[in-house]
């Protein structure tokens, strides 16, 4: 096989054979296809697309580039969730222990944040002592003992994706639905879950800005799941405003614990319970216990405490608090019509909650608490948002991002929290 033939086939709008795909992905992973050749191929795919058969073969080749996890030693069905990411999206934190409390096993490999959306591991690492890196044997031990584990993906999981994603990032080829869908699904399928629920977000704070693009991504990922024998369902959900009231790391852990204690913001509770029901149904485990009951009766909180302790964390420890705070008051009286997710995410990032480069540290205490959400009535001069940062010099740039993100007056024009369900 020859890399140029593969590139030219896709450049001219042709279909790649299964053999061509398996070869080019394997050769690229092992350094036998040059970076410039793979970048030309990624651009040809972005411009000319891939059909369902090609996307499935591409995903398979990326899974085959590394190891596949195996949970057959567990006596529970495995089920997992993947979110395409958003502002204030802390749902994994209450969701994983909740689903475990209802009878399933949740083996979740998560990532760190980059840019304006936060990462689950950054949030959990704000808990003193909590450790993200586990071996496969340690993951199995935590799953057996608690029913849920959230940790970092090891280097052996879909290494082709790791290399290709870094290349796409610097060659303008991230925004291809076939490449995004195969990237996400190769990691989730290699993780070994038998059922998967996708939370595909749309709106200013999401990767997919329009409902149409989000729907296309969701449908492509559901097809890949089905082609690989993983029961897959997708919810399309709103990311035009932040999810919940807390945006950051430690502040999102605190809000998640409130949800596990039976309280918390209504939108976080609604989405957590909806995703939990989907995860249990996809794993064929409906009826063991309803997730809303497991939040009320404390059983999800019991799993959370065990799960955090099993990874070295102290679930009772005080969480980091930023050294400085700044209150932003409502500029007028009326209905808060807009609190734009992207603006709030960008502000939290500028406060230090996120990172610009992969190797940057995050500030665990930095972030934002929203005292009002779109649709709420606010009074001029009363607190609207509280900003937290370790360095007060960060407040000005965060406020610059927030000014255009806030509008008062007029009815809010919001997406429904759960827009659609695809299966
Ligand atoms: N997240 C991924 O894991 N891969 C992509 O291509 C985009 C987002």
3D architecture notes:
The protein has 16 helices and 13 strands. The chain is an alpha/beta fold and 423 residues long. It folds into three domains: 3-49, Transferase, Pyrimidine Nucleoside Phosphorylase, Chain C (Transferase, Pyrimidine Nucleoside Phosphorylase, Chain A, domain 3, Up-down Bundle), CATH 1.20.970.10; 80-310, Pyrimidine Nucleoside Phosphorylase, Chain A, domain 2 (3-Layer(aba) Sandwich), CATH 3.40.1030; 324-409, Alpha-Beta Complex (Aldehyde Oxidoreductase, domain 3). The strands form four sheets. A four-stranded mixed sheet has the order 1-4-5-13, with helices on both faces. Helix 1 packs parallel to helix 3 and helix 2 (18-29) packs parallel to helix 4. The protein is globular and about 70 Å long. 53% of the residues are buried. The model has no long low-confidence stretch (mean pLDDT 96). Uracil binds at residues 165, 174, 179-180, 183-184.
Structural class of the secondary structure composition? alpha/beta
End-to-end span in angstroms? 37 Å
CATH class annotation of the largest domain: Alpha Beta
So, the CATH homologous superfamily of the largest domain? Nucleoside phosphorylase/phosphoribosyltransferase catalytic domain
Taken together, the total number of domains comes to: 3
Mean pLDDT: 96
Bound molecule kinds, no repeats = uracil
As an assembly, this protein is single chain
Number of helices: 16
Q: What share of the residues lie within helices?
A: 40-55%
| Widest beta sheet: strand line-up | 1-4-5-13
Biggest sheet statistics: 4 strands, mixed
Rg over CA atoms, rounded to whole Å, is 22 Å
Number of E strands: 13
CATH architecture of the largest domain: 3-Layer(aba) Sandwich
Order of helices and strands: HHHHEHEHHEHHEHEEHHHHEEHEEEHEE
Work out the strand percent: 15-25%
Shape descriptor: globular
CATH topology of the largest domain: Pyrimidine Nucleoside Phosphorylase, Chain A, domain 2
- Could you name the ranges where pLDDT drops below 50 across 5 or more consecutive residues? none
